[in-house]
């Protein structure tokens, strides 16, 4: 296909001189792919050299201690990659006689190896006809072919994989996969690519339609905020409690809740006791305070994670406008509070 030929020609003229491109050794290619997850090439390359020097073979890596591996990985971040790397090396060395699986399907069985990494090893080491699809590939193909599918949606991965498979030259999949990823990294960059010098500036659909800046389409991931709620379940001498309606805008608007102490982090008994006696319920005589649930309840909303603790506070007086515990369930509560009311022994 003309797209593939032009792309490969560009690659041969513009590719970076990277050490893992000079070998078909699956151990080296695997190392590089794991290191480059969530990591820029410039940052990852010194680690690649350090690992291949310290651990020339998968047996050397397997025989190292986890502490040695983590120390050499220090500064690269995402340390679960290093632990998975070590475990996979032990698996390959001890269970597979030091020989990496030679096909995409079996490579997927290795710990820490996902679809992208498996495809990279399979095509670069064994020339298997399998497309490598990462963020760079999403961007290049979505722009060139004007594909508006949301790349954050799981179904879109299949769509792009099928398209990439059609484009891969069956006689040389490795060079195409390298080329499309390199093109996305160097030329078809996320922001403000220089389309005037692009080899596809006469055929790119996004450029013709002035959509380069809006492709690929990716639904924004909501930033999750952690909040810490301490609900204070007041109990007076006649068995009444106190509830209040959430009238402020935001979550749970117009639903009911117990008096709330919101903090910046999970707090202990002493902090709750101080707030209750000195501030929140200072007009009452507090007889006792106890935590109602052993573990903090984590309630996940689309954009917030609520860390909730419930505290029972017994007082000597009678609550004005108190609600009997038997009637509490008749009010509309957020489900996390309602579930507590249903299960809690204190609300009989």
Explain the overall architecture:
The structure is a single chain. This protein is α+β, with helices and mostly antiparallel strands. The chain folds into 3 domains: about 5-130, Orthogonal Bundle (Endonuclease III, domain 1); about 135-220, Endonuclease Iii, domain 2 (Orthogonal Bundle), CATH 1.10.1670; about 225-345, Alpha-Beta Complex (Nucleoside Triphosphate Pyrophosphohydrolase), CATH 3.90.79. Helices cover about 45% and strands about 15% of the residues. It has 15 helices and 9 strands. Strands 1, 5, 6, 7 and 8 form a 5-stranded mixed beta sheet that branches. β7 (about 295-300) and β8 form a beta hairpin. α8 crosses α11. The longest helix is centred in the first third of the chain and has 16 residues, at about 80-95.
Mean pLDDT: 91
Q: Return the CATH class of the largest domain.
A: Mainly Alpha
β-sheet strand percentage = 5-15%
Q: What does the overall shape look like?
A: elongated
Total helices: the number is 15
Protein name: Adenine DNA glycosylase
Cofactor: [4Fe-4S] cluster
Enzyme class: hydrolase
Function: Adenine glycosylase active on G-A mispairs. MutY also corrects error-prone DNA synthesis past GO lesions which are due to the oxidatively damaged form of guanine: 7,8-dihydro-8-oxoguanine (8-oxo-dGTP).
């Amino acid at each position: 296909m003309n797209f593939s030929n032009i792309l490969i020609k560009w690659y041969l003229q513009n590719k970076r001189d990277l050490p893992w491109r000079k070998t078909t050794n699956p151990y080296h290619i695997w190392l590089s792919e794991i290191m480059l997850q969530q990591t820029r090439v410039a940052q990852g390359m010194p680690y690649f050299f350090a690992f291949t020097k310290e651990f020339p073979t998968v047996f050397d890596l397997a025989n190292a201690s986890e502490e040695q591996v983590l120390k050499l990985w220090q500064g690269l971040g995402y340390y679960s990659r290093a632990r998975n790397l070590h475990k996979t090396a032990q698996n390959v060395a001890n269970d597979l006689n030091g020989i990496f699986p030679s096909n995409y399907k079996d490579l997927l069985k290795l710990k820490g190896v996902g679809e992208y990494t498996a495809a990279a090893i399979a095509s670069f080491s064994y020339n298997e006809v399998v497309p490598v699809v990462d963020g760079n590939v999403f961007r290049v193909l979505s722009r060139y072919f004007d594909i508006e599918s949301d790349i954050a949606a799981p179904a879109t991965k299949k769509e792009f994989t099928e398209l990439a498979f059609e484009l891969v030259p069956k006689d040389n999949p490795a060079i195409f996969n390298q080329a499309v990823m390199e093109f996305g990294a160097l030329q078809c960059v996320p922001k403000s690519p220089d389309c005037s010098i692009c080899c596809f500036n006469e055929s790119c659909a996004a450029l013709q339609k002035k959509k380069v800046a809006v492709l690929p389409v990716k639904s924004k991931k909501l930033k999750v905020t952690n909040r810490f709620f301490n609900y204070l379940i007041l109990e007076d001498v006649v068995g009444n409690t106190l509830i209040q309606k959430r009238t402020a805008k935001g979550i749970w608007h117009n639903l009911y809740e117990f008096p709330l102490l919101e903090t910046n982090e999970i707090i202990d008994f002493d902090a709750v006791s101080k707030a209750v006696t000195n501030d929140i319920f200072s007009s009452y005589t507090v007889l006792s305070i106890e935590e109602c649930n052993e573990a903090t309840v984590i309630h996940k909303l689309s954009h917030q994670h609520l860390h909730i603790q419930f505290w029972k506070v017994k007082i000597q007086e009678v609550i004005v406008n108190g609600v009997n515990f038997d009637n509490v369930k008749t009010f509309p509560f957020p489900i996390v509070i309602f579930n507590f009311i249903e299960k809690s022994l204190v609300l009989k």
